Structures are given as structure tokens and as C-alpha cells.
Amino acid sequence: MKITSALFEAYLKCPTKCVLRARGERAEGNAYAEWVQAHSDSYRSEGIARLAAGAAGEASVLEPTSTEDLDSPKWRFAVDFEVHGDALESRLHAVERVPTQGRRQATQAIPLRFVFTNKLTRHDKLLLAFDALVLSESLRCEVGPGKIIHGENHATLKVNTAALASEVRKHAQRVTALLASPSPPDLALNRHCTDCEFRDRCRQKASEKDDLSLLSGMTGKERKKFQDKGIFTVTQLSYTFRSRRRPKRLAGHREKHHHALKALAVRVGKIHIIGTPELIIAGTPVYLDVEGLPDREFYYLIGTCVKTATEVLYNSFWADTGDEEQRIWVDFLRVLSEIEHPVLIHYGSFETTFLARMCERYGAPPEGSAPATAITSAVNLLSQMYAQIYFPTHSNGLKDVARFLGFTWSAADASGLQSIIWRHAWEKTREPTLKHSITLYNREDCEGLARVAEALAALGPPVRETGDDSSDRNVVSVESLGTRQTMWPKFSSPIPAFEQINKAARWDYQRDRVYVRTSTRIRRIAARKGVPRKASYRKLKVIVYPEQPGCPTCQQQGVRRHPPKTKVLHDIHFGRASLRSRVVQYRYRTFWCPNCQARFGVPKEFWPGSKYGRNLLAYLVYHFVKLCIPREVVGASLNRLLGLGLTPAAMHNLKIAAAGYYEGTLQGILTNLAAGHVLHVDETRVSIRGKAAYVWVLTNLHEVAYVYSDTREGEFVQTLLREFKGVLVSDFYAVYDSLKCPQQKCLIHLMRDLNADILAQPYDEELKTVVRGFAELLRPMVETVDRFGLKKHFLRKHLVSVARFYEGLSKSDCQSVAAIKCKQRFEKNRNKLFTFLEYDGVPWNNNNAEHAIKAFARLRDVIRGHCTTEAVQQYLVLLSVCQTCDYQGIDFLDFLRSGEKDITAFADRRPRRIRIATKIRSTTPVIDGEQV
Q1: Fold of the domain spanning 284-458
Q2: Do residues 846 and 730 touch, judged by C-beta distance below 8 A?
Q3: pLDDT at 710
Q4: Which of 311, 597, 618, 761 could form a disulfide with 896 if both were Cys (CB 3.0 to 4.6 A apart)?
Q5: Residue 31 predicted with pLDDT over 70
């Protein structure tokens, strides 16, 4: 089947329309589509007549029946004839023959196309390029640029059709594949539906399927994303909406439009509101609606509606011709000046453009005047309700919203497109009934606009779903929906007595108010409830701590400053297979060193400045950081089982003290990392009370450091790693490229990105060829690493394969966009993809850093964004110590109990077999609760 110009034109607008035309489907009635077709045919006939009138001689205009008639040298214009190419066919409006000066040069043929609109689109140019392509295939010669004659003044636009030929061929190939497919394309409503002859048919089909394209605000990409998730109908989409708390960082940003919420409003038939929208009209509302011809940029009717306490005033300013446009603008400003504090209210961007153009063409009213204030502060209702108020309509058009609110138009087919038909018919006939139809339509638009404005004002704060017979019974506040579905939803009823009865049936209410009056035993239980359990201890053991007058810092003799002190130690005793509380009374004497000004003498079992011991602090930090158990849970467990009486404030202070104690340990880890020969780095986000921040992870095979940063900017990394001279292993974040050191990009990240590109472009053979070459290059490298380890002696042999890969890549001539981007990515990172082949101990992936990121991710799930910046930094200090101990095969709890600050020194003092056993236990997988 040959592709005709009619099918090509239909495909540019809608693939479904192209298939329906190819099948010869009967078009339903669409007045605007019929008017456009009639107007286009009339304009083409008129254009051909103008060509004939302007040509000299009887043989100058030719109506050929075949391309053989074009061989005659006597014609100048050939009009209204069909040409056939290899697989294409077109009915040309006209062809102009331009003889050349030289003898050996062929005569040039210029295709002409007539378009009645004043404004041209890219589709018009592509149709002309289609004509030129078919003509060139028919004549077996090149066709020069084409011409489009358009508009009321018959302006001529010269188009370089050769530049559009490749795009036309691609579209033609898609049309061929579309028509050859046994299944029709997926039905999708779009902007062209309003002026398509198949409008009613497609809308009926979409309504029967409940298709997502019924939601006019959804783009094709968004619809495709939902369909990839298995969501194909509006009803399915409605069940995916979840109300979520808006982050504080987005408080000043505009709310985004939720298609799922729009679908939910359509399904339940109620207005849904996000936040507290408020329409404030500080003055006299003036409802504005303008009618015009967008093609000419001519505004011929300005309608206003002013509602006072006693009457409704409607003004209509009509322009017969374009010369009267300024007059109706002046009359409009005069009416505004007569209104006290006018506030212009309109719907959509058409009136916004109108006000701006009129001020530009004919001058704005004096600054500070009532009309000037009204124009600069005009209220667009569509922008007021966008993303905050969701009416149960498939679109936010004025007609749909006003009809939902109960307003109707006199004419069933009333629309902006219909008004264009009426206006053109009036210009030809001057029929008064046509003018009356337009002015009535404009007035009803103003009245519908007023109805919508009143509804929006009524939806202002407070907006709640009351459940009674009030005016907002069809309004739902999104905040009342909850964030998720629950097995025990909140009970609500339109009968207030039911809610009171339901409240009285709650378990806590009945036990505290009803059963306590019924049962003596429950009364005694309730009396004991809430009384904190006191810690009871046996007679405390008293330990007299020996005096140590020698200063532990400078070994000088200390001076007694106070009489003997008594202090109770609250600690934990670790047995071989047990854990018990330890409460001991210490008597000791403190000293002061006059040489170094140090105070000493407090028993080492006490944590400095606290009544709690080191074992208890180690136990708490171990659970907070290593096991990721919330503080409240750990405290409740210790208080119940050991009776320590820990308060949340005490645990918080102990965590702060531990972080301060190991701050120097973290600095030592950072120093060692910066001096190493290889470093893995990665970053992840963390929420600080709704504000986004970042945690950077720096690690090698032995140590890990977590560093907090408010931003993800590169200056922080440059400062942190300014002394590093080894090989940096990282992902493809551009900030790392600014560091002056050898770099190895994570090839796992690259492989995942390439795999995603292939899945997104399954038919791009060029992309598959490039990616397949990379896979074949990397596979033997990985095999060498598995066999010999990360040693450059064995890996350097693959450098020849790398050079060969890039040589082939440079010679490849990629055409697809995805393949070109893939090729550019390889070339850009050439010196950073295979660095591991030239160094010992440098891995080809960044899994080491990602493993460290997972440890922080587990901790992040516990703190859940409620911590302050200082609290997160304290957690990072302790987590750095914990992960470094894990990397070096040291038990984190043992290190905390030791009081040591240097992890490496602590590891060297421990027997090697203990460290190996600890490392094996920490890395052995667990199945069904047992290590295997």
C-alpha cells in the first residue's frame, strides 16, 4: 500500500487517524473539521485560479494526467495532479517550472502548496517536503526548494525541502510499519482531537476503555511511564494516590500536579483539595472573556460581566474589522475606569496574552489608574486552582468545570472553535443571528466564569470534609485521606451520634472509664498504671579507690584539692555468657597538678563527668550504631531487665560524650585514608528535619570514614582530598573529575547504565554493537582478576585490547542518538575506565564504598530524618569507628570497652587468631538464625 499525502498528514497529527483513513473508516460529524476541509479546498482553488490569471499564454497552466505531460517545455505551472514514487503518492497543489540559463542544466521544478492559515506550522513544511520527495522520485531528478502560499495576503514562504527529506523518509517508514502491523496503534487522545473528524469515535472508545489519555493534562511520556508500571486506566491510576507530608525544603515551591489525585476525584465524583487554597478578591470582580481569531492575532469581541448587590451588568465590545480593535480596547478601559476597585478575573492564558498585546499595540493605561491596577493584578482562575483544586472532570477546561458546577450553555456545540466558524460565516454574510450567537456565547462564558470563581471562593480555608449536609459535603481535603491504607481505618459518619458511640467503644476508653468502675481488680491495676518502677539495690558494695598522687600526664606530684568523695557507679558487668548490672559505691580523692593544670584521681571505671561506667556506654553505643536499635528501645530493655533507671536525656548525653571521645580517632582515619595509595569515595543523601544534606564515604580495604556536608558541591571534596595522591575509585559524578589524581571509574555503574539504555532502546542495533564490544573487552579482564588478583603484572596485557576497542570505536559511524551518546561517554572517560590495569591493588568497581554506604543506610532508617545536624555528625563519628573495626576484624564492643582510641594499635595487641575468628564471624552468612 502506497503512502499518500493524506495519510502522511494524518500520521503527523495522530497515528490512529492515519490508520482509520487508510481503512476507509466513515468519519463522524465534526463541524470544525468539515469547515477546515472546506476552507482549505476553497483556498486551494482560489490559489490555482490566481496562478492561472497571472500566467501568460494558454499553455502556461497545465493540468497533466501523468508525469509524461511534464516533459512539454511550454508550461509554466502544472496544477492539481497526482505523482507516484517508489512507495509514495501525493496529489500536488501546483508545480512551478523554472527554466535555467545554461544549456546542459536541467529545468528546475518547484512544488507549491496552498495553506489558508496565516501562521504556518512544521507540519505544513513537512507536507511540502513530502510533495518534493514524491516529485523527485517520479521525475528521477533532484527537486529544488518548495514554496508555501498562505494567509489572507497570499504570502509566499520559501522552504528548503532537502533539509527535511531525511525526516520525511523516517516518518514514511513509520507509516509503512504502522499500516503493515496487524494490530492497530494504542488509542490516545491528544490536542488534535478537537478538530479531527474522528473525535466522537475515539472519545467513545477511550471512555469505554477508561483510557489514561482521557486525562488531558497528562503528556505522552507520563502516560508511557504509568503503562510501564501496568497502569492503563484512570480507575487503576486513582488507587495509586497516597497523601504525603510535604517536605519543608519545598514549602516555598509550587505544588506539582498529581494525575493520580485527578483520577481519584473522577472516580469518587468529589472535589479534592491540597493545602488551603484561597481566592482573595479585594475589590469589585470583573469577569473577562475575549473572543478572537488566533490565526490573525485579531481580537473582535471583549465581554465583561460585573455582579453588584442588585444587578448583573454585561458589556460587549464588538469590532467589525481589524481597524476597530483599538476602539473596543479604549471602550473596555473606559468601563474599567468607571468601576470602583475593579479586579479582572479570567480563565486561562488566552486573556493574559490579550492584555499584554493590547497594552503593547495601543498603549497601557496611565500607571496608578484603576484600569492599570486591574490589568497588572488580573486573576487567572486556572492558575489559582492548578495542582491544588481537583475537580472530578477529565480536564480543567472552563466548560467541563462549569458544567460540573451546574452551569449550562445555550448551544450544545458551544466552544471556541465553533465561535471561529460563526465569525468567518458572519464576515461573509453579515447575518445578525450569527453575531447574536457569538455574543451570547461570550456572555455565557462570563457567567460560567463567575460560577467557577464563586465555587473557588467557597472552597477557601477552612476546608474539611464535615460529613453533614453542609455546602462542602462534596469536598475532600487530601490531608484527611491519610498516607496509607490501614486495617483499622478511622470511623466517620454523617450522623454525629455514631461517632460519639464509636469513641465510647474504644479499648482504652472502656478500660479506663467503664471497666474501672465495674471490676475491683482492674481498679487496682489502673491505680498502679503509670507509676514508674523504682530501682532497688541490695546493700551497695563499697570500694576505696587507692590514691594516685602522681599526675598521669607529666608524672609530677599532685596536690589534694578536696576531702574524700563518695560516688555510686552504675555500670554493666559482662560475664562469659551473662550480663548483669553493677552498682558500686566508690570512695576516692581527687588531685590537681600544678605543672599541667590537670585534675585526676577519679576511678577509671567512671565515664568522665558521669555516674555511668564505660561498659554501659559501650553497650549503648554498640546497640545504637552496630545493631541500629533506637535509643528508646535500648533504654526500655535495660531499665526493665537491669533496673538502671536510664532516662532519654542520659542516653543522649552518653552518645554525645562517646562521639567527642572518638573524634580524634576519626581524624586519624581521615589522615590514613589521604595518605593511602587507593581510595573509594561515594555519597548519599540524608534528611535533616526535611532539609536535604549529604554524607560522604571514604574508604579503603582497612578503614572507613563518614563525613557530613550540607551540599553536594565539589569544593567540599576538593578540600577534603587535597593531599591525596593515590588512585581514586568513584562513580561518574562530575565533581570527582576536578581532583588532581589518577582515577578509576566504577565499571559496574557503567555496565548498569548501558544495560538500561539497551532495555530502553531494544531495537537500536548500533547501541547493541558498541555495548557488546565493551562487554567482550571487560570479560577477560574480570577472569584475570579472579585468577591472579589485582596485580598489574598480569593485567597490563589487556591494554592492547583497550587500544583496539577505542580504535574500532573511533572508526564507527553511529547514527542513532543513544549510540552517539554511548560513544561520547566512552571517549570522554577513556583515561579513567581502565586505570586498574596499570596499578596494583586497584579494583575495577566501587563496591567497597557502596558496602560502606549500606551501613549508613541502615542507621539512616533508624534516625528517620528527626536528628539535627550535630546529632548526625555524632552518629557518623561512631559509625566510622564501628565500620573500621569491622574492616580490621575487631569486635566493636570489645574496642569500646577497652577505652582505646587507636584502632590499629588495639588490633596489633590482640592475638591474630582472635582477629581472624572475629572477621570470619562478621562475614559468615546467616541462614535460619545460624551461621553457616
Answers
A1: Nucleotidyltransferase; domain 5 (3.30.420)
A2: yes
A3: 83
A4: 618
A5: yes
